[in-house]
Specification:
The complex is a heterodimer of chains A (about 300) and B (about 350). Chain A has 14 helices and no strands. Chain A has about 300 residues and is mostly helical. In chain A, helix 5 packs antiparallel against helix 10, helix 10 runs parallel beside helix 12 and helix 10 packs antiparallel against helix 13. The two termini of chain A are about 25 Å apart. With about 350 residues, chain B is mainly α. Helix content of chain B is about 65%, strand content about 5%. In chain B, the strands form 3 sheets. Chain B has a two-stranded antiparallel ribbon with strand order 1-2. In chain B, helix 5 packs antiparallel against helix 11 and helix 9 packs antiparallel against helix 11. Classes of the chains: A mainly alpha (about 300), B mainly alpha (about 350). At the A-B interface, helix 1, helix 6, helix 7, helix 8 and helix 10 of A face helix 6, helix 7, strand 5, helix 11 and helix 12 of B.
Amino acid sequence: MVFVLFSISVLVFLIFFATPGVDPAARIAGRNADQLTLQQVRATLDLDKPLPIRYLSMMNHLFIERDLTSYVNRGAEVWPQVTQAIPATLSLVFGAAIIWLILGLGLGIYAAGMRKSWIDPAIGILGIIGVSLPVYWLGEVVNLVTQGKLHDTVFSWVPPLGYVPFTESPTGWFLGLLFPWLTLSILYAGIYIRVVRNEIVGLMQEDYIKTVRAKGAGDRRVLIKHASRMSMIPVVSLFGLDFGALVGGSALLTEVVFGIQGIGRLTFTALQNFDLPLIMATVMYAAFFIVIANAIVDVLYAWLDPRVRVGR
Amino acid sequence: MTTAGPALELSSESPGKIAFRTLVRDRRTWIAASLLSLIVALTLAAPFYAASISKTDPFVSTINGTFILDSKEIAVLQQSTEGLGLGVNPIGPTWQIGPYFLGADNQGRDVAARLLYGGTNTLLIGFASAALTLLLATILGIVAGYSGRAVDSVISRILDVIWAFPVYLLSISLSVVLLTSGFKWGPISLEAGSLYLPILIIGLVYIPYVARPIRGQVLALREREFVKAAIGSGAKNGTIIFREILPNVIPSVLVFIPLMVSLAMLTESALSFLSIGVQPPDASWGTIIRDGLGLLYTRPLVALLPGLMIVITAVSLNLMGDAVRDALDPKARLRGAF
């Protein structure tokens, strides 16, 4: 766990400061900076010191002193910026996760149960369309419909783009996030429909299902109680990774399209400005979430899969 | 869609032939293949379309340009009639074969011609980066799985780290760093704004997605009797890898092809949408969507059409992927693109 976090921090550091042919000072100072400005930038940001020392100093300020400041907004500390962006991202990802789990598990299990009818391929096509929709484009289409001409009539209840904190106005929070939730969840609903359906169809041929059937269990009981439960094992690991990555900033396209000031947008702005301290903070925060999510997944595994508990 | 069980045991055909027959009999293969060939043919016709039908250069802005429609001269950018009447709107679709069939963008460029040119780039990047990913991932997966011990643990650790790094964050980081400065490393030198940069970046970030399952498969193959027999009979490592391991890994790689192309294409368009993928004056479906953002409420087609093309292409690729998987390897899995 610590190894992965350490490696990611080194990787990010090297991408931004040791990529051949890239001069970070020139990027921070701007396109047409003269030599003197470049030297000033190098001196104030310690860019002339050796790489390992700069890395250690940055890690010290990031984790131990916790007073790392931005390169771009000189003096602005990075951690408060990250913590301010967390509620928006958490709100977005939690709501979307609920929708995609309901849709994904519900339709996936239903499709597997309806394998011999036209319903299964129909749900299959829905799943394929879900995974094929570019999320930012879908978001723009949603904006076109809800914020365009129809905004005066059918969608007059949709607030303008942006995030309203729950503490400020619960209804504003809900209405403002409704379409971002739906947009973000479509892709993942598509993935989960396909995983759950394929997993259950595969499990139906396993010996333990035959045993359950031989004991006289009906189709519905086999599907819900036995096959669906086992199919949750890959779903849990998938969900852990997806949720961790989204909370960590992978929802940035949705955040950009809907004007939500979350972690993803913060990371994207930092990346564009070459603001390495802020990038380092957001990426470490993202990696932390992913690593934690993986650890939780391992625990859930043992709860869902009895074979893991007895050590196989 | 399971293959016929008992009949297979009597058949003397090779597994490859059986898989191919299953694939050809699958309706999804034909739907996907026809859609894909249609899209590829259309995008390849881009230079012809620009030269003989739209008769405009889709890479040069023609803000003060005019063209003839129904023997009347019409300005490409027209005075806005909405609100205060300030600003200009590009001409909308004429729906007549000729210039500005689908209208113009805010620089007066022909949307239809750009759509076709953009498709060439999006598809090129999709296929090229998928090829790069699959090639490197297969090599890494086989080397790691077959060597075992130190080599395996080094490769696996590296793959784990990239795996824990959200793919969009990694590709955006690399794009931001490389796109404006280019990439120079030893003999490899890529100019800033070159199409090879997105190919390289997207090709690299997806390697763990393919290399990890392949490594697992090779680990399992190493324990199989026929591989042990080959090792026991004193065959060289190279012979074992090429004669015993590789033929058994190829089916999984084939299953990954359509899925990886679709993933790479979606990633390219997302990066281009964030203006860190394909750089102007080049176009891709992602950059056209971005160009269309400012016109979303006046000329929505500019942003809608390239997205629709992406969806149709990705749906065909995923359909094809399902058909190939069912024909070859029902157990193949790819995170994020099942």
